[in-house]
Amino acid sequence: MRYFIDILIPSGTAAMKLTPCQYLAALPVLLCLTLCVSCHKEEWVNGLQGVAFSCEAVSFDTVFTHCGTTTRQLKIYNRGNDDIRIESVTLTGLLRHGHSCFRLNVDGDTALTAHNIEIASGDSCFVFVQATIDPNSASALFVETDTLLLRSGGDQRKLPLQACGRNAIYHLPKDTLQLADGSYPTDNFGNHYSYSVIDCAGWRHDLPHVIVGYAVVDANNTLNLTAGDELYFHNDAVLWVYDSATLHVEGSATQPVRFTSLRHDGWYDFLPGQWGYIWLSSGSRDNVIRHAVIENGTVGILADTNAGGNPTLTVECCEIRRQSMAGIIGQTAYIVGRNLLVHTCGVATVALQYGGRYELEHCTLANYWSYGGRDNASVIVNNHLTHNGIEYLYALPLARFSNSIVYGNRAAGEMLLDLDERIEAHIEIDNTIVRGGDWDVDPCFTDPYGGDYRLNDGSPAAGLGYLFDNQNGLHGAGTVHAVRRPLSKLTPPKKIQLRP
């Protein structure tokens, strides 16, 4: 039996078949041909013929001074027939002024100017762009521009770069909470209580405020926020209203006060869990939040034990959305809420824990969480706690839901009443739709997964829940602020615990 090996030769010529012996005899010739081909010298041409960018411009969303942007990515394509060498990739700002707010990484080269970037025909290279904007005296948005410049063989290619800048007031930690035994307690995120103290009397309303760590409203002080104020929170940051302190938020229907995440570029604009919460700690008093949007945090508002006979918190005409844990948590608190829209929360829209007093009227508490699984009801009410094997019971003289909507995509029901009958617990559900309750009917939201909780025409919930008509579109060199002043006393909060 003979074995044949086919050797393909150029088109139009018949293929030859060699026996193994003939193949071995021809092998040296084949190797020489291969070496001749592999030793062919590549020719890199200086020039930009056939060079193109993957985009027409690079733009960044609003960037706070001192804060770097996320990274934008683009490609430089070589669509020509020659392998090219780009002599330099740089920024015109560097050439003209010696500096630029933009930074480049060209195929791994982070130098101010990248040299001799080689791109084979039909290939490409990556360019990564970031921006850090220096502060100035502007109180409004301002624009920084530059140009990405390619030069080679006397030719040039240019790509515009643009970033909108904003000055801000920064609240940066200056102290860390230390207990009497010398230890440093940690919060629910596992972080130490690194804090700054807010100068409430000197609060500026003409610039946004950036919160890093814990920004504290100290005892016997009131922080007044007015229409159009904006607070941006760094990762895990918290606004801490301390014992005997007060938070007073008075926005308007057209200019709500905004509590939001620091980052808003791309999908970060809709990402829950980017910061901590507004913490009305035990002993804070007479807090009012009216006309505000609270978004993209872990908990919108955490209200601790009530002090005195007045409500711990009165919250009205607010939207609390995209919280990775809960919109509102009350812990033995006294909360009065009117005309609220609380939605898209990872655990519950409202959790009323360890007793207290709660009066909620014209509230839409809707949970169509789509960022992962959700096992808990949208609304949770309980009056007991077991800690270290010890059982604690808390009086719940009133938890009232009136003219409201409690709904969501949890088939098992959206209200959990986890009550111990050994202590007072009084629940009132008046003219309120509750999924899994006595009045369980689809309220017919316009687009709940898209965040639109207006009611469709003919909805059985007409007149209930959040009254959009009263809101008129509710949806619709930077100063480093670091007042160094000790707090009268500090105690860590109770751990947030939500029962399944």
The percentage of residues in β strands lies in over 45%
Got a strand count?
40
Span from first to last CA?
77 Å
**Mean pLDDT over the residues:** 86
User: Rg, please?
Assistant: 32 Å
Biggest beta sheet summary:
24 strands, mixed
Helix content: under 10%
Which of globular, elongated, flat, extended, rod-shaped describes the shape? elongated
Note poorly predicted spans: 1-15, 35-41, 470-500
Number of domains: 2
Determine the structural class based on helices, strands and strand pairing: mainly beta
The total count of helices amounts to 2
Description:
By secondary structure, the chain is mainly β. The protein folds into 2 domains: 45-166, Immunoglobulin-like (Sandwich), CATH 2.60.40.10; 169-481. The chain has 2 helices and 40 strands. A hairpin with an 8-residue loop joins strand 1 (5-7) and strand 2 (16-18). The longest helix is centred in the N-terminal third of the chain and has 19 residues, at 20-38. The termini are far apart.
